[in-house]
Amino acid sequence: MTWSRGAFPVLLITSGLIVWVSCFVVLYAGLSLGCRYGPPAFSMLGMEGINWILLFLWVIHLAVLGWLVRRSYVALKRSSTTSGRFVMRSTLLLHGVGFVGSVWIGFPILMLPACL
Hints:
Elements: H1 7-36, E1 43-44, E2 47-48, H2 49-78, H3 82-111
Antiparallel strand pairs: 1-2
């Protein structure tokens, strides 16, 4: 893999944190808007409708982050230069941090009622 100058390597390295920020904003904005305008009136398996919607959004973000982690791990194994390995290790670490952060902020969806 060849590295060029410019914004692409920076975007590659920080994409896991960008997805984490997106997860944070989407979950908390969805919770606020859902509670403000009224949660959906359905309930399944002991969870309210808004919790199901937030769970769906959370799982999408986790799937994207899982894909990023897997892709950066494969790229790390394929990199042959010292600078390439450094970039891919940094990328893998930041994608992992984004994944763990997204898991952490999403657990209250499963445990707490949405609108208190």
